[in-house]
Design brief:
By secondary structure, this protein is mainly α. It contains five helices and no strands. Helix 1 packs antiparallel against helix 5 and helix 3 packs antiparallel against helix 4.
Length: 132
């Protein structure tokens, strides 16, 4: 796994780990809702899902970092498989966020565009770098 792919993967992991407390614990705050691009109405009804998404993001971020550690200090092949699996999860979950928006599930509609772009560029770049 080349350096560019590792940097992209590490940055993607750090970002999802850093954002996860907002999704898990701070979703009720208006500033966090603006940051995440969501409406404040019905937050109590979606807190369960935001908690689970934030926890999953933190776990996949930690998995990515563990895979990178394996690539550099342990079993390179197994570490690469772990990093690629985590990157695929990050990319596909981001694309599903865009799909949910396109289907009208995201309120306000179009609110996922910034988050989708921000959360898909690094995993996509890393996966492309691994593939070439």
């Amino acid at each position: 796994m080349n350096t560019f792919a590792q940097i992209c993967a590490a940055l993607a992991a750090v970002i999802v780990i850093a954002v996860s407390p907002a999704e898990v614990f701070l979703i009720h705050r208006p500033r966090v809702q603006r940051f995440l691009g969501i409406e404040s109405e019905g937050i109590a009804n979606v807190h369960l899902w935001s908690f689970c998404i934030g926890a999953r993001n933190a776990l996949v971020g930690v998995g990515t970092l563990a895979g990178l550690a394996m690539v550099n200090f342990g079993d390179r092949a197994a570490g690469t498989v772990l990093v690629v699996a985590c990157l695929v999860y990050l990319l596909l979950s981001s694309l599903f966020m865009a799909l949910a928006d396109a289907l009208g599930y995201w309120l306000p509609r179009g609110g996922s565009i910034r988050g989708t772009i921000a959360s898909s560029v690094l995993p996509a770049a890393a996966l492309l770098a691994v593939a070439v």
